[in-house]
Amino acid sequence: MDRQPHGRLDELLRDPYPHYERARHTGGLTHVAELDAWMVARDTDVREVLRRPEDFSSANALRPDVLPSPAALAVLGRGFGGRPVVVTADGALHQRLRTPIVRGLSPARVTAVLPYAAERAAALVDSFAADGSVEFMSAYAHRLPGEVIGRIVGIDPADVPAVVHGGHRAEELLFRPLKEAEQVAAAEDVVAMQQLLDRYAQRRHAEPREDLCSELVASVLPPGAAELTLEERHELVAHLQNLLLAGHLTTTALLGTTVLHLLRHPDQWALLCAEPERIPAAVEEAARYDSALQGFRRVTTRPVTLAGTELPAGAALFVAFGGANRDPERHPRPDAFDITRAPGRHLAFGLGAHGCPGSKLAREQLRITLEELTRRLPGLRLAEDDPVVMRPTMIHRSPYRLRLTW
């Protein structure tokens, strides 16, 4: 059963920026019925929430918009996972879950994978460069991030498509209204991915390698343990699933929105092609202007006052990174897409204890992509006969399709 009518919710999700603007100009906080939460959209207020995890818990960070049907839930019951993950954990548990991920996505680890990322980016562009047109999301944006995070985690390239597909199906199941038969089919795909990840966890326990999957297994397994318990397998699959989904879905979205806005502003695209040294600034502006991760939910752990609004314990908030990134108090001319602006301190990758540990990896993939496209396809433009429709979600905001021509 849906928590809210999806017509009104879809309208908000496809273009949340007018809602953010109204919330910023309203005294105190605004309660948004479609989200069933108080919207936090000012830069100052978002930063305050993110800096106070003890008062604003992440326990509800991934609350679904749609509750799967009993039949779909029965299918999910045959899978693995369902345990706390780094995004939804607080305190000591959050630190325990986060530590191996931070280590696995260290600057040195990211730098080491960049030659592979550049090689794969070039190969993907090779696959369509001579065609004169491409649907960019399926041919490139849905592929590069999965291959790169799969390499770091230690997933065989042959298994990456199944992991990527399972991630998209998990998102559809929890955030889009589907008919029951389609829910069951999506749940089957999610369970297949979870069973694949369980096999990886068990193999890495038996034969550790120099990859992040092995490090995650070591972080869960007590010293001297001979085998993984069923509970440890559930925890590892939840951990791996969350890491892989965050590692490819968010970057896929960022790739899509960045190319979209650059080509919607042909003068900006031409400038970038002429002066590729501006690519790092373009990466930051794209992340600020239309953040792939529009925000996360939080829940108050005690009575608090935020922006003059008194909130009881258990109050649900939607902490809008995308709203903060369009706050004129922080970013002059916030609704202008301008790669020449001096990069400011945006919140596209969060802040504080839950700041995205994969932000460097995402930025580097976007940098590599823009270097490849500006050098090889400077004549890129949006296809006029294929209007862009944004996916209705706050978690991985991106176009459904992005048809490009040159």
Automatic annotation (TrEMBL):
Keywords: Heme, Iron, Metal-binding, Monooxygenase, Oxidoreductase. Pfam families: p450. Transmembrane segments: none annotated. InterPro entries: Cyt_P450, Cyt_P450_B, Cyt_P450_CS, Cyt_P450_sf. GO terms for biological process: cholesterol catabolic process. Belongs to the cytochrome P450 family. This is Cytochrome P450. The gene is cyp9.
